[in-house]
Amino acid sequence: MLAAINAKYIHSNLAVYSLKSYAQACFVMPGSKENKESKESAGSGSCTESDGPYIEIAEYTINQQEDAILEDLYKRQPDMLCFSCYIWNISMVEDLIRETAKILPDTEIWLGGPEVSFDAPAMLEQFPEVKGIMKGEGEETFAALVSGENKSCLKGIAWRNEKGEIEDHPWREVMDLDRVPFVYGDMKEFEHKIIYYESSRGCPFSCSYCLSSVDKKLRFRSLELVKQELQFFLEHKVPQVKFVDRTFNCSHRHAMEIWKYIREHDNGVTNFHFEISADLLTEEEIELMGAMRPGLIQLEIGVQSTNPDTIREIHRTMQFDKVAEKVKKIQKNHNIHQHLDLIAGLPGEDLASFSASFDDVYRLHPDQLQLGFLKVLKGSFMETRKKDYRLVCKSSPPYEVLRTKWLSYADILILKGVEEMVEVYYNSGQFTLSIECLEKNVKSPFDLYRNLAEFYERKRLNFLQHSRPARYQIFLSYIEETFPEEKEKFRECLVFDYYLRENAKSRPEFVGEYLVEKEAARLFYEREEKEHIYLPHYMEYDRNQMRRMTHLEYFPLKGRYILFDYSRRDPLTKDALWLEVKVPERIGNGSDRQVAKSK
């Protein structure tokens, strides 16, 4: 049994599916599920040891109760139980190892994954309940284990032999990626989940914080296979396929062939996610991207820092001026979501340096800006330099930085506050206009989010759950305290942002009174029903239906009526289409007059 404990329900574990598919492809499986079911239906009973290995997958999440997982493991009664181990689940796995061994004493427990591969003997010392650990790539090793090969001669494992002694065997040579079977078949198993896919393994770069730099053996899946498998996703109209390739565009030919295929066979539904190095993008690739359907692909771009000394120290290859140039070119077509990453806690970067990196990336206006914190992973080059950098990290996963030679813990807390505010007020996409206005009132983008974080702390609003309307009210309270003369201007910005995303029929407190007179609104929708000046695509709807599917709001500071149309949204931001409109308003003598200007 291959057990995966995912971070969220929508995630799936590609590793365990790859191990099972490869093992089943290596030898005839008389104990396969299909054979097992046919035997049981014929009354021959359950599989026996002579039937050969029968491999099951069990997926859980870290949000489940450990007792519930333990109960399920016990009821399945596996002969061999293999846990897939990562920084996000290792604490739960360790607990389950101890308890499972008590209730299933005859079950052989094995581990695998990046969190246990690089200190396998120490892990075996710590957990006598574990029989062995598969190190590194697991397909061939797992197939050898379940086929009964002599463990004393098996590469890619550390294990406890018959005498109880720990043997640490050499790592296995990496395999040809074409030998890994395609793991997806019955897509019902993956309904409502992100689909993960790899067209390459390894990475050509040597970033000191990343485990991909440990093994330099980069290899690609053949393009013929990749195209066949992508077609499977397209035919099944999978919502999203996330490529797990570490640097997808490190091979121009490989990337171009895949991006061309995706564009030419676009089904109008499926989105593909890629992690790339933007500075490697060619003009040909950018031109191809510009011709894609909005939302067909999205890009994650790791910047990490714009400090040249830091970039050199972490052995990273990145030229920020080229990154900025390519990001801006892609933005011009407004058809691709770009997600840019920064890492706090890297060597050579103090608070001032990080704030400069933040401002550099922020001014590119990515769709999302991810502020992450250095994680000192077992087996990484960064771990070997902890003493030199006076790098102190948490003892438990995910081993996140607490302080360095350049950053104090107090500085880390400042950055934590900035991270939270960026998530709420930038990455949510719910405060676009309000944030743009606020940017004009502060020295730098970093100061904007630092000031907001300090306001939250001062008002004891941090560490609390806030509703979406409450976040708007808090923002307005911050403006009232900091820029009181600008309160009404910002309130209008917040109202605009609120209705840009949400067709809300009840009005939160910060919005204030509804200023569109009932008679004016009635006349507007009556006219639209007859003439369709602003809503020509609503021909089959009556005035009441149009009113429910749109929102009309008056903004007094600029004397404008804005119509928000929720049937037409931006494919990237999901914002409603908005129009400045003329509204007929009945006045005292019974005649009509036009209020505001059309856009």
UniProtKB/TrEMBL annotation:
The keyword S-adenosyl-L-methionine applies. Pfam families: B12-binding (PF02310), DUF4080 (PF13311), Radical_SAM (PF04055). Residues 193-406 form the Elp3/MiaA/NifB-like radical SAM core domain. It comes from the Bacteria. This is B12-binding domain-containing radical SAM protein. Keywords: Iron, Iron-sulfur, Metal-binding, S-adenosyl-L-methionine. The keyword Iron applies. Its cofactor is [4Fe-4S] cluster.
